[in-house]
Amino acid sequence: MANAHGAVYRAAMKTAAASTKTTKASPVGRLIKHWRERRRLSQLSLAVDAEISTRHLSFIETGRAQPSRDMVLLLARALEVPPRGRNDLLTAAGFAAVYRETALDSPEMADVRRALDFILRQQEPFPGLVIDGHWNLLMANQGAARLMARFLEPGGAAAVGDRPNAMRLFYHPRGLRPYIVNWEPTAAALIQWLHLDLARGIGDAETRRLLDELLSYPDVPQKWRTLDLDLAPTPFLAVEMRKGDLDVKFFSTLTGLGVPYDITLHELRVECFFPADAASEARLRALAGPG
User: pTM for the complete prediction?
Assistant: First the structure.
């Protein structure tokens, strides 16, 4: 009888182990849960948005159900997951990625480059930049080149890093930082972009590495290490730069492409700088010379 009881116990333990194994969260289930928690949604809220049952969503997250390709895309849309993240979800579920990532200098991007060139030319004599999702500089107009030439010391750009990056140029002690009069308030505001990118799921591991690098620079306040959503009392924050007899104030706008179906284009941003007062406009126009 004891042996019979032992056999029953071992069989029960095998069944329990098998059940635990089958309900172990799948890679896609963990990712969906990660995005849901990042969006601060309950299972009920997401299920309502996606028009599926809470039970089915729970089964997907715990691994008891394997989502179809259409279900993965449905949940990604409901969670407002960016294209790069949607590819990750599809790959985790065993499906092919749908969004490609095409280099900006590839032949397929010729029309986009012409459009970006046009925007940058129209921005003259004021600075204009094209940056990717990690703030790497991809294109710049002559207005930006003139400003960098005046404010960066010889070899300063190379000292900041092999690949030009707008955030590094702004924060690095050998970059623009020594010449930014109101560096602390503007740097505090800018670093929130990286925090927000990570909070919204736009940023990735490279974004995190960039943020950690900037926070490691000298004299960076401890309070910048967390997301701060407090609003400034002014409509916008102007950056003031001064070196010798050149003193300019400007603010910037960030523009994205409409309806992009490529990861590169989705993450692309055009930053245009505008003078914040009449004196700065006159000085920037003077830098461009006659005509």
Answer: 0.79
